[in-house]
């Protein structure tokens, strides 16, 4: 895939004046607009690259393949395609939510591409298991996915404020609701299944790339215990517990998020 094709397929935007690429990957139901408060803070020192996962934002919807995107592997391959098309090397990858695991999978496949992984609200498995608390029971996840299957709009309106947290700032929940509602319902359902039914715990041990875990102090989607689990099983990792609450500190606490990334880098 050449640069022009990649730019069109993934709606790639590049800015900044630095030599080192910093690639921002958004989470489920979102698009690159979720980085608008964070990414510009790095433009003086980095080549800032944002994009939309296929099926999200301004991506090429005709490129969506249900088989390819039935698991997170397809999204990880896309990240590597973007890096190859734009000749990105020594990449600082910043992944929010499910894109944290997408970045981990990409780094396993091509460790030479990445200098650092910044993982915001990562979760290797959302479903509780023996000796592992992911935050949801299996019936809860099944109920969540069934609700999404039957009523995409209702699910978005109910879940987005819960995911965002910060009930004292309802405008944040409304923004996430609107983002969810803009997503094609069929694509949202498939991406939700790929996200919430994934289990990447064994992949953590295969990553050697230096990593920073940014964990919100209260997060119903990726609780503090999950962040600590990732830290314990990811060699060469650091963890910062943010004062921010909710699952989207890139929107609710951008200054703290920026400061934590800069302190690490």
The helix-strand sequence is HEEEHEHEHHHHEHEHH
- Which bin fits the share of residues in helices? 40-55%
Low-pLDDT segments, ≥5 res: none
**Shape-level CATH architecture:** 3-Layer(aba) Sandwich
**Integer count of domains:** 1
What's the pLDDT, averaged over the residues?
A: 93
Can you describe this structure?
With 265 residues, this protein is α/β, with parallel strands linked by helices. It has one domain: Alpha/Beta hydrolase fold, catalytic domain (Rossmann fold, 3-Layer(aba) Sandwich), CATH 3.40.50.1820. It is 42% helix and 17% strand. It is built from 10 helices and 7 strands. Strands 1-3-2-4-5-6-7 form a 7-stranded mixed sheet, sandwiched between helices. Helix 3 links the parallel strand 4 and strand 5. Helix 4 packs antiparallel against helix 7. The chain is globular and about 45 Å long.
Summarize the helices and strands and which ones pair or pack:
Elements: H1 3-10, E1 13-15, E2 20-25, E3 46-50, H2 72-85, E4 91-96, H3 98-109, E5 114-120, H4 138-150, H5 152-164, H6 170-182, H7 185-196, E6 211-218, H8 224-233, E7 237-245, H9 249-252, H10 254-264
Parallel strand pairs: 2-3, 2-4, 4-5, 5-6, 6-7
Antiparallel strand pairs: 1-3
Brief rundown of the structure:
The protein has 265 residues and is of the alpha/beta class. The protein has helices at 3-10, 72-85, 98-109, 138-150, 152-164, 170-182, 185-196, 224-233, 249-252, 254-264, and strands at 13-15, 20-25, 46-50, 91-96, 114-120, 211-218, 237-245.
């Amino acid at each position: 895939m050449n640069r022009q094709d990649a730019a069109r397929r993934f709606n790639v935007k590049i800015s900044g004046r630095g030599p080192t690429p910093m690639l921002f990957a958004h989470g489920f139901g979102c698009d690159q607009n979720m980085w608008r408060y964070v990414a510009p803070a790095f433009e003086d020192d980095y080549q800032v690259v944002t994009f939309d996962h296929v099926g999200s934002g301004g991506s090429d919807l005709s490129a969506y393949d249900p088989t390819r995107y039935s698991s997170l592997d397809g999204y990880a391959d896309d990240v590597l395609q973007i890096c190859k098309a734009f000749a990105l090397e020594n990449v600082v990858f910043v992944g929010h939510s499910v894109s944290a695991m997408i970045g981990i999978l990409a780094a396993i496949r091509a460790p030479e591409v990445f200098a650092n992984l910044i993982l915001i609200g990562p979760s290797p498995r959302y479903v509780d298991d023996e000796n592992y608390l992911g935050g949801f029971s299996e019936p809860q996840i099944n109920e969540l996915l069934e609700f999404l299957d039957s009523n995409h709009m209702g699910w978005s309106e109910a879940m987005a404020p819960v995911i965002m947290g910060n009930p004292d700032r309802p405008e944040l929940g409304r923004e996430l609701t609107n983002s969810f509602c803009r997503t094609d319902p069929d694509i949202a359902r498939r991406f939700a299944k790929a996200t919430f039914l994934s289990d990447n715990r064994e992949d953590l041990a295969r990553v050697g790339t230096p990593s920073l875990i940014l964990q919100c102090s209260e997060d119903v989607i990726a609780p503090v215990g999950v962040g600590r689990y990732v830290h314990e099983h990811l060699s060469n990792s650091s963890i910062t517990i943010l004062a921010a609450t909710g699952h989207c500190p890139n929107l609710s606490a951008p200054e703290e998020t920026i400061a934590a990334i800069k302190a690490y880098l």
